[in-house]
Every structure is written in C-alpha cells, then in structure tokens.
Amino acid sequence: MGALQGRALTAAPPLLDVRGLRVAYGPTMALNALDLSVEAGELFVLLGGSGSGKTTLLRTIAGFLRPAAGSIRLRGEPIDALPPHRRPVNTMFQSYALFPHMSVADNIAFGLRSAGLGRRARAARVAEMLDLVQLGGFGRRRPQELSGGQQQRVALARSLAPRPALLLLDEPLSALDPSLRDATRSELMRVQQLLGTTFILVTHDQEEALTMATRIGVMQDGRLAQSGPPAEVYERPGSRFVAEFLGAANILRATVEAASNAGTTLDVAGVGRVQARAAPFRTGASCLLGLRPERLRIGTNATIGGNQASGTLASSAYAGDTLRHTVQLANGASLRVAEPLASGIRGHHLREGTAVTVSWERDACILLPP
Amino acid sequence: MRGSGRRLWALWLVPGYAFLYLPLALAVPLSFNDSRLVTRWTGFSWRWYGTLWQDAVLIDAALLSFRIAVLSATMALALGTLAGLALARFGRFRGRGAFVAGLSASLVMPDVVAGLMLLLLFVTLEQITGWPAGRGTLTVTLAHASLSVAYVAAVVQARLAEMPLDLEEAAADLYAPPAAVFLRVTAPLLAPALLSGWLLAFTLSLDDVVVASFTSGPGASTLPMVVFSQLRLGPTPEINALATVVIGAVTFALAAGGVLRRYGRRRHVMPGERST
Fold first, then answer.
1. Which CATH number fits domain B47-226: 1.10.3720.10, 1.10.150.20, 2.60.40.60, 1.20.1250.20?
2. Which one of A219, B29, B137, B144 has the lowest number of neighbouring Cβ atoms within 10 Å?
3. Predicted complex ipTM
4. What's the N-to-C CA distance of chain A in angstroms?
C-alpha cells in the first residue's frame, strides 16, 4: 500500500489503468465492470478458472475485442480507440503463433520492420534478443524445426523485440512439458527483471501465479475478485471463493463471540471456541472460518498452541510429500489436514478410526464474510 | 482387408481408370496414323504434326485461347481472393447470404444459360453505353472471369478457414496495418491456394466452348470453338495430334506442379501440421 500511496502523491498515472470494462459475447458478459491497475515493472498474474474472463481481458487490452463500456489507459493516455497495430502493447500467444513461412530471425524482426527500424538496427536487435533467450545461432532455422521450448523462447523474443511498454502473456507455459515448466518459469522472470518490461500473465496454475507474480489478480465471473501480493492474497483472502481457488481451505461456519483490537473469539460449529486475529466483525455477527490444511497439526493430543478440535480420523492418503488426512468432527463436518512427511512414511502411527486432536495457531485462522 | 484381399480390391480400379483414360490414351497412337481417317490404322507417320504446325487457324486460336485464359484467370484470382477473404474473415456481415447465393449461382448455372445471359448483357450494355464495342476477345475474357470468380473464392475460403487466425492477429499485434498483414502473412500462407485457384480458372477458360460461342464475335474464335467447328466437317488425325500435344503439356505442368509443391511443403508448414 505504501508504494501505491507514494505514487498517488506524485500524481504519476499507473502504467495500465482499466476502469469499468465491460465486454459482451452476445448476451453474456465476459467482463463485467472490471477495474485493474498495473504499475510499471510489475509481473502481474491474472489467475482464474476457465470462463472467468482472463483471456478476454488480455485480448481487450491488446485491441482484438471491443469493449461495450469502460476505458483502458496506458500511461494516462486512452488507447480504447486504437486498432491493435497502433497499441504499444505486445502479446505472446498461447499457441506462439510463429510465422511458419519465415525464419526465426525474420519472425523476431517482424515487429521491428513494422516499427520502421533500419536493416542494421534490426539485425543488431535480433541478435541481442536471440542471445537474451539463449538461442544464439538459431536465427536461420524455421520455427517448425525447433522444439516446443525453443519455439516458446522465439515467441517471447519476438514479442519483446520492439520493446513494448506492456507485454501480455496468455498461458505462456501451458503448452510445455511439466519438466520444462520450472526452468521456463524462472527464465521468464529473469528476462522480465533484466528488461524491466511490465508483464501481465494469464494462467490457471496457482503455483505458477504464487511463485512468479509481484501481484496476483484472482478473476471470478468477469471481475477481479481480489488483487495483491501473492502472500497477502494467500494469507488473507477476502472471500470464500478466493480462499478456495488459491490453495485449499477448510471452511467452517462460525459466530463472533467477542471482538476487540487484541483479537476475535469465535464459536465454531463442531469445534467450539477459537481464538483469531482482530478482524472487522462485530460481536454476534456470523462469519466463516477458513483453515488451510497445511497449517493444521494432527496428533493424539494438541501439539501447537491456541486452538484445537477433536474428531475421528476418517482417512489418510499418501501424497508423497504429505499425508492427507480427513478428520470427522463431532457435528459431522470434516477437516482436511496435510501433514508434512519430514521423516518419511515410516514410524507413522495414526490409524483410521482413532480419536485425534487437530491444533493450529491463532494466526492460521482466516476470517471470511459469510 | 489386408494383403492379398486388398490387392484384389484394387483390381476394381482397372475398369474405372480405363473408362476415364482410355479415350485419351487412344488419341496418342492414333495421332501417328498415316491414314486420313481418324479410326483406321494404316502406318506410322509424323505428317499430322506437320499439318498441325502449319495450320495457322488452329495455332492462332490456341494463342488466343491461352491469352484469354491467362487474362480471365488473373481477373478471377483478384476478385475471387477478395470474395474468399470476405467470406472467411469478415464474420456475419449484412447481406452475407445474398453474397454467397450470388457467388454460387455461377457454379450451378448451366453454361448455356450463363452464356445467353452474358450475351444479352453485353448487347444491352453496348446499346446504352457504347461499351463493349461488339463481341470479341474482351467479352469472352470478361465472361470467363465472371464465371471463374466463384471457384477461386471457394478455394481461397477453404484455405483461410483452416489457417489459424492467431497468425494474422500476431502480425497486427506486431504493428502491421491490415494491408501489411495481408501482404506479409496472409498472402504467403495462402500462396498454394492462390496458385490452384488461378490454375482452376485457367483450365475452365481454356476448355470452355459454350460460353465462348455465345459471347465471342467474328474473328475471335477460341481453340475449343475451332475444334468443335472442324468436327462438323469431319475430323482428321490432326485433332489427335493436337490432343497429344495438349496431353503432353498438361502432364508436364502437373509434374512440375508436383515437384514445386513438394519443395514448397517443406517450407510452408502450418503450425500443427507435420512436415513430410
């Protein structure tokens, strides 16, 4: 928040400012009064399920879709009326969309030629871009002679070559093998930091969003449900949708018993009294308690301070890095608990059907509006 | 249906191909026939090729046909490409249904009707505006071009439909204005379709006799018109010699086209297609 207020004082407009954007596909609203603001140098990740409007938003910013209402400003200048070829915004397509009838070098030079760069300047920039994506010497190949990972890097180089103010990336890693994704992810971040270009990246992969983003925007039904730094959105989701979409969460019904600046006391169905952080809920209000499975500890008695719940171990599933337990509470509700396997599966002694106690810290409680 | 069973089935192809190509194949040996009669073999001779070579009427008609075919195919290519683009890329614009109906009318219209209507059109136009002055090369060319547009449009539209839209979007995204998108991305990827559309129009014009008979005038007889009129006087083996020359030219063109396509396919592979 501090950085944002500092900017507001100097009155510099954000790099991208989207206000009240509506895009209709026939009778359905793909984007519904969406607001989004992205600062220069950010790697903003748009996360959402299919049909949430994230790709529609990218295509509208790029100029391929006409909004029914709202405004898009780049560095304070409205760009709504400009056709795609006059917007200083480039897109990296999910399919890469490399021109099959041109060499890799001609693909990368395409935007430079349109922008009116001379031959020598183009050749120099192409060489620079090929080095940047570690494809030096590949300039004369055809795109279809390259592997998927190499094509991805050509697409990145091509969209970055004209030095756009803003680069839009539509699921840039989805076409790659999972084994390549980790390396490519850090490669994208390295390039982004090196050039300082602002990225808006669309994905449905939450791990990708959490590890790459400077800020995440979670999309729901054509709106931005919440945006903020990854840790903030993950630790303090603003709604049940965000809590369950980004990571896993147990959601329990609760009533506020006492609320003060020091903390909140809840009466949670099937659990009892729970101590949480101070939250903007009044005494007597009903709310939801969110608990992330990996923040819970399980044992025959409470192992960490603060809160606990007792129940029966209904099932345990081995997931390699964790054991995933389901604990049945007294009122029939169930809690998912992820137990890290620090010393492997051996020596594990909890049996299904036995009475267990689940415990968690005060700060693990996420209070959500009902 | 493997092994010998499959080979047995292939035997059915023999009568089929024979039906299609035997008449053509017969023309070749008969063109070397010494006899004046087309159907009776008397001995080997080159004489009908000599006659053909010196037949100014036939050669002039062939050159005229070729000129008309090249011109009308090129006009049809320009108009048909635009029509194909409109059909494949402009979405559901107003009047699209009427546009499609108008285009495909020339595909289903009998040549006799089309020829007659074009003749009436040219005559009426001349009476009102003075242009085109009389019937001749110009009117045949215009008639052929108008009838071939639909074929070119169909070929171009089919190719555009299978071409991913994101290539053109990527070009626009990289600052290329619409004309540059077409010239630098769409047209090169469309090249095989443009070529086959042009060749289709060329062929249609070259062997048309009906529409040409209606829309041509004195002194502008195309090759099919001349051949057709000679048949009425009784054909000579000169016709066979002409047929052999045409078969040779077409075979050469097809072979050259095949070689070019094989070379081209290695360079123009659509994303998602595998190169062969």
1. 1.10.3720.10
2. B29
3. 0.86
4. 26
